[in-house]
Design goal:
Histidine-containing Protein, Chain: A, three-stranded mixed β-sheet, four-stranded mixed β-sheet, globular, alpha/beta
């Protein structure tokens, strides 16, 4: 009996490891597909959650087509059973567009941060909704996060800045 329990618990451990590896593969594939979307840029913020075979898409985009494209490519991934698309399409606004470009110049034009602008997918995303700004993404250190927040706050017409930049480990 003891031998059967040990064997059974070993099988459970193997199944859990297999499921964990499957989750990691699915997360990598979802991340890859989202980053490869042709119109995804620094003014969009895409995020996701993977729970089993279900994927929840989150974030904000400036183009409605990007929301539908994201859902379409994720549905095609092997192993995905359900996609819950909660991506918000930001309202059209010339004032918000002006703020987006001004913050882009202020952040990526700063001497400490311009190296991030040369990456294939720049890691600092600028989300603007009705004059309110959120900085999303990952930077190399806390000083870069602080500088990006200060640069965004200095742009005329900005009502508030939420700095959600994470520091890379």
């Amino acid at each position: 009996m003891k031998r059967i329990l040990v064997l059974f618990s070993g099988l459970l451990g193997i199944a859990a490891a297999w499921q964990s590896a499957g989750q990691a593969r699915l997360q990598r594939e979802v991340r890859h597909e989202l980053v490869m979307l042709p119109y995804y840029n620094v003014f969009d913020n895409l995020a996701f959650k993977v729970e089993g075979a279900n994927v929840t898409l989150l974030g904000q985009v400036t183009r409605p087509t990007l929301k539908t494209d994201a859902e379409r490519v994720i549905r095609k991934i092997e192993g995905v059973e359900k996609v819950d698309n909660q991506i918000e399409v930001l309202p059209l606004s010339p004032a918000d567009d002006r703020i987006r470009f001004a913050i882009h110049r202020a952040v990526y034009g700063h001497s400490s941060l311009n190296r991030y602008g040369h990456m294939a997918v720049p890691p600092i995303h600028i989300v603007v909704k009705n004059g309110n700004v959120a900085l999303e993404g990952v930077v190399g250190n806390q000083a870069d996060s602080n500088i990006a927040g200060l640069q965004a706050k200095g742009v005329p017409g900005v009502f508030s800045v939420t700095n959600n930049l994470r520091v890379e480990k």
